[in-house]
UniProtKB/TrEMBL annotation:
Organism of provenance: Abiotrophia defectiva ATCC 49176
Described purpose of this protein according to its UniProt entry: The purine nucleoside phosphorylases catalyze the phosphorolytic breakdown of the N-glycosidic bond in the beta-(deoxy)ribonucleoside molecules, with the formation of the corresponding free purine bases and pentose-1-phosphate. Cleaves guanosine, inosine, 2'-deoxyguanosine and 2'-deoxyinosine.
Enzyme Commission (EC) number: 2.4.2.1
GO CC annotations on file: cytoplasm
Official protein name in the record: Purine nucleoside phosphorylase
Binding site for phosphate: S25, H56, R76, F77, H78, A108, S207
Assembly mode: Homotrimer.
UniProt family annotation: Belongs to the PNP/MTAP phosphorylase family.
Lineage top rank: taxon: Bacteria
Matching NCBIfam families: PNPH, PNPH-PUNA-XAPA, PRK08202.1
């Protein structure tokens, strides 16, 4: 199933990736800092999902960043776009097949925790899956991992410590907390946000959890970062995607520094 994709990517020179990165809304620019880059549009890759949204054509970027060989997914696939979760997480399995050991997943998220501000960066320490689906449903891929996956430490404690160390180096303030996954694409209601706060959610978003579960299934180390782009529904007067993009653009320089320092320490 993966052979054709892997063969093609290895033929293009994607031979030794160490760290896989998935860049969230407004955070894709980090891929422009990769040196000795090989950039491959998704539509050129056999069996790879293709973005259906105009102007969202994604690409894989391979090369050197902060002393590591990285493989970046510049543009991810969301469940709300209509892809099934096998498709959403196909690139993560390709990371595994190419030899990636650590995956850094990033996203834009709404802040549920009342001490968060738009523009904060949050280490994901754990997640709550409220999407009513799981990317591991279906026949188990025994070659990648077990049927019943332990999610006790989905987001590696070592990785969390490295993120803190990387932030401290730059004087970057980091929040930490639990990311709550919903399907979207509608934003939440204020009542849903109150519910999520009650059950322990600190942030809410429409991505990341399927990729993290599959990465964990494959035995890869997972690090997660949320960019808090807004206060969640009911905590500010209204929500819109333009604000999400505007705040993530402002956070970008800090985000890039954090990821580069993290890569150097991994
Ligand atoms: N809710 C869900 N997803 C999001 C939000 C939000 O408030 N902000 C950015 N992505």
């Amino acid at each position: 199933m993966f052979t054709e994709t892997i063969q093609y990517l290895q033929d293009q020179g994607l031979t030794h990736p160490q760290v896989g990165l998935i860049l969230g809304s407004g955070l894709g620019e980090l891929a422009e800092d990769v040196e000795n880059a090989i950039r491959i549009p998704y539509e050129n890759i056999p069996n790879f999902p293709v973005s259906t949204v105009a102007g969202h054509a994604g690409q894989l970027v391979y090369g050197d960043l902060a002393g590591k060989k990285v493989l970046i997914l510049q543009g991810r696939f969301h469940y709300y776009e209509g892809y099934d979760l096998n498709t959403v997480t196909y690139p993560v399995r390709i990371f595994k097949e190419l030899g990636v050991e650590t995956v850094i997943v990033t996203n834009a998220a709404g802040g549920i925790n009342t001490s968060f501000q738009p523009g904060d960066l949050m280490i994901i320490t754990d997640h709550i899956n409220l999407a009513g689906n799981n990317p591991l449903i279906g026949a188990n891929l025994d070659a990648h991992g077990p049927r019943f996956v332990d999610l006790t430490e989905t987001y590696s404690l070592r990785g969390q410590a490295i993120l803190r160390q990387a932030a401290a180096k730059e004087g970057i303030h980091l929040q930490q907390g639990v990311y709550t996954w919903v399907t979207g694409p509608s934003y939440e209601t204020p009542a849903e946000i109150r519910y999520m706060r009650t059950i322990g959610g600190d942030a809410v978003g429409m991505s990341t959890v399927p990729e993290a579960i599959v990465a964990k299934h494959c035995g890869m180390e997972v690090l997660g970062i949320s960019c808090i782009t807004n206060l969640a529904s009911g905590m500010q007067s209204s929500l819109n995607h333009e604000e999400v993009m505007e705040i993530s653009a402002k956070v970008k320089p800090r985000f890039k520094n954090l990821i580069k320092n993290t890569l150097a320490l991994l």
